[in-house]
Amino acid sequence: MAIPLPNRQLFIGGEWKEPVLKKRIPIINPSTEEIIGDIPAATAEDVELAVEAARKAFTQNKGRDWAFTSGAFRAKYLRAIAAKITERKPELAKLEALDCGKPLDEAAWDIDDVAGCFEYYADLAEGLDAKQNVPVSLPMETFKSYVLKEPIGVVALITPWNYPLLMATWKVAPALAAGCTAILKPSELASVTCLELAEVCREVGLPPGVLNILSGLGPEAGAPLASHPHVDKIAFTGSTATGSRIMASAAQMVKPVSMELGGKSPIIVFEDVDLDKAAEWTIFGCFWTNGQICSATSRLLVHESIATEFVDRLVKWCKKIKISDPLEEGCRLGPVVSGGQYEKILKCISTAKSEGASILFGGARPKHLNKGFFIEPTIITDVNTSMQIWREEVFGPVLCVKTFSTEDEAIELANDTHYGLGAAVISKDLERCDRVSKAFRAGIVWINCSQPCFCQAPWGGLKRSGFGRELGEWGLENYLSVKQVTKYISDEPWGWYQSPSKL
């Protein structure tokens, strides 16, 4: 099924603009390894133009054109974007599947979530109007104080390739709802649908410069954007290593950042579970999105009394997963995003084997697929806690397994990690689930499931998984600053100094 890819440029100041240095990056279909198009490659020169456009849109007419309009005004644009996204859902889902290898059914689900996220933040933008001038109770009657919530300014939004349009929307929608103007820099490995978001914004008449979109390489576009002195905040989703570099750059100007970084999340399966239900959630929690999820519950801790039977059940479920071109009906596991990622994952599996772990299932290219960056769902056993496969993020369809004997041991093993993004517990004993949930050192906990995500609920982690929260009301707060306004309301002089008129 041939789908023509749109030939787009950079989106700056409401217009399509060719990169200053006229560079472009090839788009490689991860299913076929063929070049199917290209995207523009921004450099520091384009970043300069985009920041200037965003700054102009923020300050124009003293902010009365966007930043300090009513939330209801901005909500109209967010709803119009949501409607256009819904209208173009079939096309956008196919583009997403072609670009990053995501199964088509999953990509379609993501596009629904994109539209839903814009709608949700339209509601919160309207609600922001009622939260202005909120009075603060003071101990002195001669003063009155209130609070204003104002947009933080020009924001840089740097997003990953595993949920190209959805991860961008998690940042774009609340930033625009708050009244910020933004420069979005999606991953060079999957920018196609983000550039289509630019076309949607153009079609709905979003004021020029409110959202600018620069595709390009991290060092050439992301780095100058993150370090730009006229960018007021950086919101980043990606690897912990890149996040650390962005933080160091922002620190030079004491610039606020929010970070959603890597993970190595645990899933604890107790002995009282329904084996099939637990098995499906376990493989969904690790193999969904082709295993490329920062919150993947890729460390399975299973009670020793059911371990053999449960792992056997996992293998039976894995054998039923359809691995194919993402556009094929019923595909449930597509290719990983790139050749580089493919090699990295296979190396992680090879290292696990050399360290003494056992590859129980998968671990290689599926036999029926000769091309594409496909890796079988992989289950690794005989793992100890010092192994790389247990401690480091793989970002691929790889599950490692360890047993435990007591609840305390399971919690200790679960929390023994540098990361703290997600964690899951599966048990019929709901009191135990609540205890374990409280004991987890993670920002997101799932009980009797893994990976469900709703735009109304906060998302983010602890430790090296980052800080700050996206989604929900917390996501909007990311892009707002709080201003205290206090006024003196007495007719009496303050009287601290002796008045010259009384001398």
TrEMBL record:
MF (Gene Ontology): aminobutyraldehyde dehydrogenase (NAD+) activity
Catalytic activity: 4-aminobutanal + NAD(+) + H2O = 4-aminobutanoate + NADH + 2 H(+); 3-aminopropanal + NAD(+) + H2O = beta-alanine + NADH + 2 H(+)
Residues annotated as catalytic: 260
Domain Aldehyde dehydrogenase positions: 23-485
Cited Pfam families: Aldedh (PF00171)
Class of enzymatic activity (EC top level): oxidoreductase
Entry keyword annotation includes Oxidoreductase: yes
Keyword tags: NAD, Oxidoreductase, Sodium
The keyword Oxidoreductase is assigned to this record: yes
Known EC number: 1.2.1.19
Top-level lineage group: Eukaryota
InterPro entries: Ald_DH/histidinol_DH, Ald_DH_C, Ald_DH_CS_CYS, Ald_DH_CS_GLU, Ald_DH_N, Aldehyde_DH_dom
Recorded metabolic or biological pathway in which this protein acts: Amine and polyamine biosynthesis; betaine biosynthesis via choline pathway; betaine from betaine aldehyde: step 1/1
BP terms from Gene Ontology: cellular detoxification of aldehyde
Range of residues in the leader sequence: none
Parts forming coiled coils: none
Family the UniProt entry places it in: Belongs to the aldehyde dehydrogenase family.
Protein name according to UniProt: aminobutyraldehyde dehydrogenase
Organism classification: Eukaryota, Viridiplantae, Streptophyta, Embryophyta, Tracheophyta
